[in-house]
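Input record, target 12 of the design panel.
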């Protein structure tokens, strides 16, 4: 463990604000119309938490919808054909580092189809050396197709992996499905 000496609060500030740095480009890309102009583009936000997603999408959709308040700000949305959350659902994936049970429980609010579990290895805040135990704690009792999506299926879809070619490797090193049973 590193000693921060007289800068004890710096790591607390970093771990509180790190998600802002990860999410800010997404905000620019959605409002800037990047996903509208490039519907096949995919964005993966990794090494971050995912708890911010429901609230952020609700806020962006609220700002997108025509209200008394937003109407006063001029035209900042006519270049977008969909609400911000629709672009997110269509084009954004989340490499959720060290995904705790709280985020697994929020998977439908966050967007099951976008979630990809990660270990954040070799970073000290990662799951190693208790990766197996943390994975079981996070996913125990979750329906098998949802576990399969978050542990590899979504990543395979994003990156175009040949799932059939990877099946022998998954069978050899992947956790058995029965391990996640309630």
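The sequence produced for target 12 reads:
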């Amino acid at each position: 463990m590193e000693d921060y000496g007289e800068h004890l609060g710096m790591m607390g500030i970093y771990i509180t604000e790190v998600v802002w740095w990860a999410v800010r480009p997404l905000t620019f890309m959605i409002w800037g119309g990047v996903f509208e102009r490039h519907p096949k583009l995919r964005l993966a936000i990794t090494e971050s938490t995912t708890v911010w997603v429901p609230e952020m999408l609700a806020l962006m959709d609220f700002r997108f919808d025509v209200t008394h308040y937003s109407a006063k700000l001029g035209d900042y949305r006519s270049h977008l054909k969909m609400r911000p959350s629709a672009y997110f659902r269509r084009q954004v994936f989340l490499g959720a580092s060290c995904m705790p049970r709280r985020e697994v429980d929020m998977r439908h609010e966050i967007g099951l189809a976008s979630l990809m579990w990660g270990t954040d290895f070799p970073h000290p805040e990662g799951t190693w050396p208790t990766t197996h135990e943390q994975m079981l704690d996070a996913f125990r009792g979750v329906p098998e197709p949802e576990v399969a999506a978050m542990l590899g299926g979504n990543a395979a879809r994003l990156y175009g992996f040949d799932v059939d070619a990877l099946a022998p490797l998954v069978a050899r090193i992947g956790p058995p499905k029965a391990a996640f049973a309630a």
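The mean pLDDT is 90.
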